[in-house]
Design goal:
This protein is α/β, with parallel strands linked by helices and about 375 residues long. It folds into 3 domains: about 5-145, 3-Layer(aba) Sandwich (Rossmann fold), CATH 3.40.50.720; about 155-265 and about 290-310, no CATH class; about 315-385, RNA polymerase sigma factor, region 2, helix turn helix motif (Rna Polymerase Sigma Factor, Chain: A, Orthogonal Bundle). Helix content is about 45%, strand content about 15%. It is built from 16 helices and 11 strands. The protein has a 7-stranded parallel β-sheet, with helices on both faces. The termini are far apart. The mean pLDDT is about 95.
């Protein structure tokens, strides 16, 4: 069980809920980080009294240092600060919940320092799964999934033999546009996109859920976490979000993990594994939830899911490019520069034009990510000339 925790992304949705879990379990918070939300980070620091906090934005970091000069907390900033944070000697676990590829280098450094990882940053495994899992094995580090779907798979696989597994079944809510046609998607608004029916999440992941890119990223993540071939991973739309994922076994049995759509539950188990602890979090009420339904995702509507699965099948540098293009496209959409349907169009164009590198190093991945972002912006600008 985690005793001393560092949280990367403590001001985001996962980070704030993780702090609620820490309150419930009396876990000692030794480090916190934020991109630039220093008002909330200051409040968190004064409450939890961590040894060190990190801010990605240099100027905000210097400002926070002045604000916290009456405390004993060390304030650092930039990527160097994040690395210092995750390698803090006192920490035994690092929860990585920053958004995007920004989590990759700190996660690798934490693994190299022998810290167990509670992983809520999909992009770490999407872009560098092979390297990350090799590093975890080399350094005898546990990587515990925080996502409800992967924690569900983890629980269903727990105690079972790998050779008995027939299929991993990831469930998806279908987001706000389940049942829409491609023509209807051409007219959806940003407000509609951010109105998720079941989950309260940050804007980027909420958009990814609406395009189902989020589920595509989860497929790639599951490949690496559970050392499973892509052909043995299936996605099913389950709008009630009560069954978080399932495992099908070769004897015809299927194990499903059921729980309320409350992220604090998988966060807690990632921090307490292999123990289970009491809490007052959400519970499934079968007097209310009387029907559980499933359907296959429409490939013509949720094209991002299939772009991600194509990237997974090809491998190499293509998942890096796909992820970078998605991050840029989602940012453009959130800033109302492109339409919802253009997100998938932009990603597909950039992926199609990429020359795949089969076995990229960590430095290669960082450079490919940078170039893919630049190419995505060029493609966007060209389409608006």
């Amino acid at each position: 069980m985690t005793r001393n925790l560092v949280i990367l992304g403590s001001t985001g949705s996962i980070g704030t809920q993780a702090l609620e879990v820490c309150d419930n379990l009396n876990i000692n918070v030794v480090g916190l980080s934020a991109a630039n939300s220093i008002d909330l980070l200051e409040r968190q620091t004064r409450k939890y009294k961590p040894l060190i906090v990190s801010v990605m934005d240099h100027d905000k970091g210097k400002e926070l240092k002045i604000r916290l000069k009456d405390t004993n907390t060390k304030v650092v900033w930039g990527i160097e600060g994040m690395v210092e944070l995750v390698t803090t000697q006192e920490a035994d676990t690092v929860l990585t919940s920053v958004v995007g590829i920004a989590g990759l280098i700190p996660t690798m450094k934490a693994i190299e320092a022998g810290k167990n990882i509670a992983l809520a940053n999909k992009e770490t495994l999407v872009t560098a799964g092979k390297l990350v899992m090799e590093a975890a094995r080399k350094n005898n580090v546990d990587i515990l999934p925080v996502d409800s779907e992967h924690m569900a798979l983890f629980q269903c696989l727990w105690g079972n033999r790998a050779e008995d597994v027939e299929k991993l079944i990831l469930t998806a809510s279908g987001g706000p546009f389940r049942g829409y046609t491609k023509e209807q998607l051409e007219h959806v608004s940003l407000e509609q996109t951010l109105n998720h029916p079941n989950w309260s999440m940050g804007n980027k992941i909420t958009v990814d859920s609406a395009t189902m890119m989020n589920k595509g990223l989860e497929v790639i993540e599951a490949q690496w976490l559970f050392d499973t071939d892509l052909s043995k991973i299936e996605v099913l739309v389950h709008p009630q979000s009560i069954i978080h994922s399932m495992v099908s076994f070769r004897d015809g049995s299927i194990m499903a993990q059921i729980g309320a759509p409350d992220m604090r539950i998988p966060i807690q188990l990632a921090l307490t594994w292999p123990e289970r602890c009491n809490n007052s979090f959400g519970r499934v009420d079968f007097d209310i939830t009387k029907t559980l339904t499933f359907e296959k995702p429409d490939p013509n509507v949720f094209k991002c899911l299939y772009l991600a699965m194509t990237a997974a099948e090809v491998g190499g540098s293509l998942p890096v490019v796909m992820n970078a293009a998605n991050e840029v496209a989602v940012s453009l959409f959130l800033n109302e520069k492109i339409s919802f349907i253009q997100i998938m169009e932009l990603i597909e164009t950039v992926m199609t034009e990429h020359n795949v590198s089969i076995n990229p190093s960590l430095n290669d991945i960082i450079e490919i990510d940078k170039l893919a972002r630049e190419e995505t912006m060029k493609t966007f600008e060209k389409s608006n000339q």
